[in-house]
Structure formats: C-alpha cells, structure tokens
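Page 42, continued from yesterday. The earlier attempt failed because a stray header line got pasted into the input along with the sequence. Redoing it now with the clean sequence only.
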Amino acid sequence: MLYDGVRAVADRFDVGTMLLHLGAVQFGITGPVRYTMSGPDGVELCKLTRPRTVVPVHYEGWRHFTQGRDTIERAFAAAPAAVRDSLTWLTPGEPKDLAV
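This time it went through. Structure tokens are written below.
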C-alpha cells in the first residue's frame, strides 16, 4: 500500500527497477481496505521515486483484483512522460533485460 513509509523511499534510495504490486486488491470480508496499490497510487509513487524501470506485478488472475492491466495502463498513460515511459510489462516465459 502507498503510505508515508513507502513514500519515504524517494528520500532514501535511488531506485533503478521497481516492482509494483498493483491491482487494488480487496476482499469482501474486509470492506474497503485495499491490500495492494491502485494504478494512480503506482503513478504517485513513481513520480516521487523516479525509477528507470517499473514492472507491474500482482494485478490479475484472481477475483480479489479490482483493477487489471487496462486500468493500470490508463493511469500511467495520463502520467508525465518519465513515469509513462518507465512502465515495462513482462510476458511469462519471455526473457527481458531490465535497467537497474
């Protein structure tokens, strides 16, 4: 989740590659509580940390995800160019060189 402790990463580290747990996971039993970031949360964190490469993970495949790839892509498409251009999608089984 995006909270002050995660935001503080921007002040403490130079981030090369960021794995973002997205999908805005929610469970009916816990109400509005989310367990992973939303697309807009991911964009906000990337604006702060300025990673060279952003890899979305944990955003599809189960019913508890409330945002899929399309929602994440829209959030990043509306972001500044540096954030938008850092987004890198992985395809299972295909190798990918990532900037560190």
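Notes: The chain has one domain: 4-86.
Reminder to self: strip header lines before submitting.
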